[in-house]
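HUMAN: Quick job: go over this next protein and say how the chain folds.
***
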Amino acid sequence: MVADRGRYAGLSAEERMRQRRAKLRETALATIAEQGLAGLKVRALSARAGLNDRYFYESYTDTDQLLFELMEAELAAVMTELIAVIATEPADTRVRLRAVVEAGIAAVADHPVRRAIFIELQTTGELRRRRAEFVALLGGIMLDQGRELLGEDAVTGIQAELAARTISHGGLELVSEWLRGDLDIDRAQLVDFLVAMILTTAQITTTVRREMAGTADGSRG
């Protein structure tokens, strides 16, 4: 039934478009969970959502745009979960670090959509760019936590930034390999190693800062 003022079945054209967009997002999430990113095809998604292809293009230029919209939402959800863990854990470096690492791995490994996206973050140039953005976010969290937990003892400046990037890149690669099944270790072993790696890197960073300071003093002398 067509009603007055462009309304159909009680919904405006804009409301119907929002419903179709939400249906496409829901269908894409289910498809990624079952088939990975390779399953994101316009015709297949539209058919599964019970929509004509043209309705896909009223919301998205291509499947990449849809994928990146979903990735942004999932990344925001993961970061929210990690920040919530940080806020509830005690101000003990080792305890809080372990809780955050465990939560981060669970947020990806136990979520089929995030797991599929995470595994394929290196497959295209655009996905690698998104991965780099995630690395920067993780690095920022680590630097903030270092300042909060260690206060004046926290390493700052370029050494701290390089250490944060090293941990983020290395940690993400290890988790990716584990998710792909390339590492024959269980989750507890992965958590143990990542916690140790982060703590050790922090110690190395302090040593590097001292060495660089000593070199600079020597060159001035």
About this structure: DSSP finds nine helices and no strands in the chain.
